[in-house]
Amino acid sequence: MLDYAVTIALALFSIAILFTLYRLIVGPDVVDRILALDTMAVNLIAVIVLTGIRMGSNILFEAALLIALMGFVSTVALTRYLMRGDLIE
After folding, report:
1. How many Å separate Cα 76 from the centre of its chain?
2. How far apart are the C-alpha atoms of 65 and 46, rounded to whole Å?
3. Which pLDDT does position 79 carry in this prediction?
4. Do residues 24 and 41 touch, judged by C-beta distance below 8 A?
5. What is the C-alpha to C-alpha distance for residues 26 and 47, in angstroms, rounded to an integer?
6. Whole-prediction pTM value?
7. What are the tens digits of pLDDT across the range 12-60?
């Protein structure tokens, strides 16, 4: 039963990644593109965790944690750049 749930969740998160990729490319504003990039990082983390559950591998959970940290830092850096015009004060 868990295999079916993981397979369905992987398919749905893959579709969500495609939708956010569309918003990343077509987004009417830079803010929409940054939000789409952050959403894509969250969906990618979910796909990695689900793949780790499916394979029974613990290393993928650590990779998901690293991607989550990088996604957070990049989102903060991009929004700070948009608000102030530079990253380092």
Report:
1. 14
2. 11
3. 87
4. no
5. 23
6. 0.84
7. 999 999 999 999 999 888 889 999 999 999 999 999 999 999 999 889 9
